[in-house]
Design goal:
Length: about 375
């Protein structure tokens, strides 16, 4: 009787232990949701800047209204409300990654001289490496030539270079969209206003980048306009190359793209990338005509891999054209298939240049 009681107690304990071990093995921690955003720029005061085009992404592209420092922003679908705090590049240069303590998300907005701030770059790299949060990069339209300059991400944890047309006021299209929580409601085809025509699209990139959206900008570069990468500790970075600066005013499209990025969970992120950025190129290639791949040639590299001065076969009719590097740092196809720059784009660009040289002039005629 005593032996049977002991055996029952032993078996009960063993089963209980087995259940606990099994539960521990299958339990995963919940993904992190954005709550507190560090808003980084070196153009102006930050999210609370009411000028256009100024240093607030909210005024320039999202709602048309500034978000006060330490104020809140609610996504268009009311699914998420976050606190936004301005953090200057100078502060990060001085304090390092400690300046980002307490923030689960970092927005880098038009920090065109990021390459000249090694301490800030090191802090962003450390933040991601530690899995401290999510980084969202927006550098299109303003960061395109020597005034101020193309953003240099060569020392970033996941380096890349981009085709950078600047504020042309040009239209453009998505050419491939990978289904994920970053692209809900987005689809291939023409995109409103100048968000894609003026977009920065990848030319070279670290293989850890995962493709989300490809687009063709006004320079003819069909590359990744949105991509993401993750670190082993759960850090997530999302690059968004569409024009969120000198727009023709906020649009529902830009707000959708921004809100999806803000609402994107991380650690874990649940995004589908398994084979890196090349996966998206292969998806585009699958539907290409005449045996060509998705960029109109047969080499499988993708137009985003062309270098300055390299000849290639153009997708518009198969004639040879040249990809040359322009003085302002972008790339443009010359010959068949060139995208014309319309008068409004020229005026748009000239106004942007003058504003950057004379930032005190904030009243612009569209």
């Amino acid at each position: 009787m005593h032996a049977g009681s002991s055996l029952r107690r032993f078996l009960t304990a063993a089963v209980t232990a087995s259940v606990l071990v099994s539960a521990a093995a299958t339990t995963t921690h919940a993904a992190t949701v954005t709550n507190h955003v560090a808003y980084i720029n070196d153009l102006g005061s930050g999210s609370d800047d009411g000028t256009f085009p100024g240093s607030s992404i909210f005024v320039n592209a999202i709602t048309g209204s500034p978000v006060p420092n330490n104020g809140t922003y609610t996504t268009g679908d009311s699914a998420l409300t976050v606190t936004v705090t301005n953090v200057s590049v100078a502060t990060i240069d001085t304090s390092g990654v400690a300046a980002l303590s307490g923030f689960d998300t970092v927005i880098l907005y038009e920090v065109c001289d990021i390459g000249s701030h090694p301490a800030t770059m090191a802090a962003i790299n450390a933040y991601l490496t530690a899995g401290s949060g999510k980084v969202l990069i927006f550098d299109a339209d303003r960061c395109f030539d020597a005034d101020p300059q193309v953003a240099d991400y060569s020392t970033f944890l996941f380096p890349f270079t981009a085709s950078t047309p600047g504020p042309e006021g040009a239209s453009g299209s998505y050419t491939n969209v990978q289904a994920s929580t970053l692209t809900t409601g987005l689809s291939v085809g023409p995109i409103s206003s100048d968000s894609v025509g003026d977009a920065n699209t990848f030319v070279t990139f670290n293989p850890n980048w995962c493709g989300s959206i490809t687009a063709q900008n006004t320079l003819g570069n069909d590359g990744f306009v949105e991509a993401y990468a993750r670190t082993p500790n759960g850090g997530l970075v999302v690059y968004e190359g569409e024009d969120f600066w000198f727009t023709f005013g906020p649009t529902s499209h830009l707000r959708t793209v921004f809100d999806l990025m803000l609402e994107q969970q991380f650690n874990p992120d649940g995004l589908p990338c398994a084979a890196g950025v090349r996966h998206l190129a292969r998806a585009a290639d699958a539907g290409a005509p005449d045996g060509r791949d998705g960029d109109g040639d047969r080499d499988g590299r993708g137009r985003g891999q062309y270098r300055a001065g390299e000849h290639h076969r153009d997708v518009h009719g198969g004639e040879r054209s040249e990809c040359r590097r322009l003085g302002h740092g972008g790339h443009q196809r010359i010959g068949p298939g060139v995208v014309p720059v319309f008068e409004r784009g020229v005026r748009h660009r000239h106004a942007a240049r003058e504003l950057r040289r004379h930032p005190e002039q904030h009243s612009l005629e569209q």
